[in-house]
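Pilot study result, target chain (125 residues):
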Amino acid sequence: MKGEKIKKFAYVGDLLEVIDGVIPRRRRHEATKVFQALRIAVNDELNILKRALEQVPFILSIGGRIVVITYHSLEDRIVKNFFKSYSDKILPVSKRVIKPSMEEIKENRRARSAKLRVGERRENS
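Predicted structure:
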């Protein structure tokens, strides 16, 4: 590290240059994961998701349903744990997570990582 020059990022290209120098390129550009991580951190997305889910058992009417689509494992883990934590109030509608079909993925590549979970509010036990 000694003798290396420290430079602020002025452009996206500056960050891409560093990423390319540190992370070997595979099939797709690895910078997408870095930008996703930055977006999640800057927007505090995971904490917002947790806080929103914590309100659901108290605002959802009996028989009402919550439907959540997640696009990466960090989100999905939060939603899965939410359903486990509130299993006395929210009953999963399907036993397994719902994933897109191959046909849907062919039509919309962005759907490939999507997972859908559905729960129904039940009467207090």
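One observation from the pilot: The mean pLDDT is 89. A full batch analysis is planned for the follow-on phase.
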